Amino acid sequence: MAQGLYLSQKMALSQMLAPQLQQSLALLQAPILELQALVEQELQQNPILEEQTETIMDGKGKWDDTVESPDPTDEKGSGEPVDDWQKKVERLTQEDQEWREYFSQTSLPSRPNPDDEENRQSMLDSIVTPTSLQETLREQVRMSELPKEQWQVADLLIGNIDDRGYLKASIDELTFSTNMDPEVIRKVLEVIQSFDPPGVATRDLREHLMKQLERDDKTESLEYRILDQCFKQLSKRRMPEIARQMGVSVDEVQEAAERISHLNPRSGSSFSPENQQYVVPEVFVTKNDDEFVIATNNDHLPRLRISNTYKDLLSKAESSADLREYIREKIRSGKSLIKSINQRQQTISNIVTEIVKRQREFFEKGIAHLKPMTMTQIAKAVGIHETTVSRAVSGKYMQCPQGIFEMKYFFTSAIQTASGASVSNTTVKDLINDIVRNEDSTKPLSDEEIVKRLAKNEIVIARRTVAKYRSDLNILPAHLRKTYWFRPPYLLTCLCLGRSLPEFFQLTLSIGLRRSERPGPPRRSL
Predict the structure, then answer these.
(1) Which of 5, 111, 175, 305 could form a disulfide with 64 if both were Cys (CB 3.0 to 4.6 A apart)?
(2) C-alpha 211: how far from its chain's center?
(3) b or e along 238-254 (b: 16 or more beta carbons within 10 Å of the residue's beta carbon)?
(4) For residues 118 and 507, which has the higher predicted lDDT (pLDDT)?
(5) What pLDDT, in 10s, does the model give residues 121-170?
(6) CB distance 434 to 475 below 8 Å
(7) Residue ranges of the domains in the chain?
(8) Which CA distances in Å does 202 have to 76, 364, 391, 496, 502?
C-alpha cells in the first residue's frame, strides 16, 4: 500500500460548554474585585444593562429586571396574526413574573451609601507607592560630592543593585562589559557604600553585615571580629569553636551572635517593601447570640437591571426587525449575567453555610479545633459538583471572629489518632508549634522527641512527617535551635535571605527573631 498524505472524514461526539455556562463558571471562579471589573466591562459592552443606584424597597420591584418585551408587528414586520401576538404577550408576561419572583428571593443588598464610598476611596488614594532603592541612591548621588563625569559610573553600579541592597555584578564584570577603568569603578563603589541604607552595594552577606557595624563604629567589637574571622563557623553555629578562636567564653559568643541576628540582612528591602496583599472578604461570619450569621459581601457588585429605554424601543411598532432582534439578544445576554451573579452569590453562601456548620468549634475556640474536611464532603452536602466547590473557594476569603482566612484553609486532610478519631493536619502543626515554643532552648527537642510528645496526645505520625510540618512552619532543626544559656523559650524562625547566600548562615540569622506566627494567612482587608 502506497504511503502518503490523505484527507479523511470521521464523525465523533464531544462535549462543549455553552457560552452561558462558560460565563457562569468564570464569574463563579473570579474573586470579588475581579468580578467587579468583569461586570463593569459588560456594562460598557451591553447597552441594555444599566446600574441601579437607588434602593427600591418594594418586594417584587427590588431588582428592576425585565424580560423580552413584546414584538409588535406592522407592515414592515413579519405580519403575525393578532391571536399569535396576544399569546406572545401573555407568555412574556408570565416569564417576566417568574424572573421577578426569582430575583425578589435572591436579591442583592443595597449599595453602600455615598459617605462610605467616599471614605473608602480616600483610604485607597492615601496608599502611595514608596520610593525605590535605586531612586533613593540616585538622589544621594546628585547630592554627594561625586564629580558629574562619574555619575554615569554610579548609575551603572546602582542599576546592578537588587532590591535587597546587594551588588549583583563584580568590578571585573563591569569593567569587561563597559571598558571603564576598574579603579574608577572601585572608588565610586566606595562612595555608594557610604550612602543610606547601611550595607548597600555590598557583594555578599558577610560584607553586608560588616558595613553596618562599620557605620556604627563597631569595628573593634566582638561581633565584627566574628564576622571577619569566623564567618564559616558562625554559619554552622559552632559556638565553642568560635569561643576558643576568639579567646572568649561561649556566653560572650552567644551574646555576639544575638546582636548579629538583629542586623538587617536585606537593608534595601526597607525602600522596596514587598507588595501588601489587600483582600476583600467574600463572606462575613459573625456570631449573634449562639448562632453564626453569614452575609455575602455585595458592596462591590453593581446592581444591574435592564434599561427601560430599550424595553420601550422594543415595543414600538416602527422599530425594524433587525433592531428588535439585536435588543432581544442583548436582553438575553444581560439576563444571563444577572442570573449568573445571583447564582454565584447563592453558591458561595451555601458553601460557607456548610463550612460553618462543620467547623463550628473552630469559629468558637480556634485553630486547635479545626476538623478535617474535604471538598467532596461539602459538594455532597450542598448538592453540587466537587469542581464547583473548588472554583467557588478559589482565591476567596472569609472574615470571621478568628480573623480573615482563605476559604481553602478550611479544607485539610485527616490524621487518625490512636483512639480512631480524625484530626486536621493544621491542628497537628499547631501542636508542633506549641511544643517547640515551650521547649527548653538549651536542650531543643529532636523530631523523634516531638513524635513522642504528639503520641501522648494520641497523635501517631512518622518522624519524616514531623520534619515536613516543621519545615512548613519555618522551624529550625534541633541543632540549630540550641542556645548555650537559659532563656525564656520561644520559637526560632528561618529568615530567607536569597539563593546566592550561604544556606547555613540564613538559619543562623534567625536567632533571637520573633516567634513564628501561628498557621493561618494574615491578611489586610479593605
Answers:
(1) 305
(2) 35
(3) ebebbbeebebeeeebb
(4) 118
(5) 665 555 556 678 888 888 888 888 888 888 888 888 888 888 888 888 88
(6) no
(7) 133-270
(8) 82, 50, 46, 18, 15
